[in-house]
Write a structure and sequence with these properties.
The protein is α/β, with parallel strands linked by helices. The chain folds into two domains: 207 residues, Rossmann fold; 48 residues, no CATH class. It is 33% helix and 21% strand. The strands form two sheets. The chain has an eight-stranded mixed sheet with strand order 1-2-4-3-5-6-9-10, sandwiched between helices. It has a two-stranded antiparallel ribbon with strand order 7-8. Helix 1 crosses helix 8. It is globular and about 55 Å long.
């Protein structure tokens, strides 16, 4: 069954596009109310209709689990300009969706930027979060993977001009513009320099051929999470997209694993 895209108003000027399929009581899974549903958090510049979200949404529909996905401000069908928004804005968007669209415990699935957002949500929605699945999760990327990779001349240019264009293989023009206010806001959201309280299960998928997010980032995330139930799953051949058939199957297997663990 096709799910209709709906819109959540978040003030006089913005609305978020989302799709929400509730748990289906008439499926073989016969999901009880206290079993976690899933929320998918997309990557920077991506939308809720990407391959990974589609595969997981299809699996959840077949299995009877609730599944929610949405577009951040400036992404997909949501309002706003892409370059105008920040990590804080996108975290707030996710919180609005969780609080106003979903119910019960949740397993968050965060891809790249979405991995940062899901970890940020532990600070505001921890009581709703039962488990985490990261896919090339990229916390602190504005500082570690952008700012700290620039030379002094580039840093000065970014500050003076308010932005910088950097090579990006996933952009049609081969470059992506990063505004300086994204760097400034990112510093208010850094996570990898202190313990991050969470005691639920976590699975971190990471490709070792990822040219955007170093695979060691998964180790850094595991180190700051206080949970003793963190698994890191490295794929030696995977790049940042993590969308080959066997990689998508691995994501579904992780969703199945966490749903079973948390329902027992």
């Amino acid at each position: 069954m096709q799910i209709t895209t709906e819109f959540l108003e978040i003030g006089p000027d913005h609305r978020l596009a989302f799709q929400h399929r509730p748990a289906a009581a008439n499926t073989p899974a016969n999901i009880p109310a206290n079993i976690p549903g899933f929320v998918f958090l997309a990557g920077h510049g991506s939308d809720m209709l990407g391959t990974k979200a589609e595969i997981l949404a299809d699996w959840a529909a077949r299995s009877g689990f609730s599944f929610t996905r949405f577009d951040y401000r400036g992404h997909g069908q949501s309002s706003g300009a892409f370059l105008a928004h920040t990590i804080s804005d996108w975290t707030a968007d996710a919180r609005h969706i969780i609080e106003q669209v979903t119910s019960g415990p949740l397993i968050l699935v965060g891809s790249s930027l979405g991995g940062w957002i899901m970890l940020n949500l532990l600070n505001s929605c921890r009581q709703r979060i039962a488990g985490l699945i990261g896919i090339a999760a990229a916390p602190d990327f504005t500082e570690r993977l952008i700012w700290q990779t620039l030379n002094k001349e580039q840093q000065d240019q970014m500050q003076q001009q308010g932005h910088i264009a950097l090579p990006n293989p996933y952009e049609p023009g081969g470059q992506l513009v990063y505004p300086y206010h994204l760097i400034e806001d990112g510093r208010a959201n850094l996570l990898l320099d202190k313990p991050l309280e969470f005691d639920g299960p976590v699975i971190l998928h990471q490709g070792m051929q990822d040219e955007e997010v170093p695979w060691q980032t998964a180790l850094d995330i595991a180190a700051v999470l206080t949970s003793d139930r963190v698994e890191i799953r490295l794929d030696k051949t995977a790049g940042h997209r993590y969308s080959e058939p066997h990689q998508l199957a691995a994501l579904v297997a992780s969703a199945e694993q966490l749903s079973q663990q948390l329902s027992s």
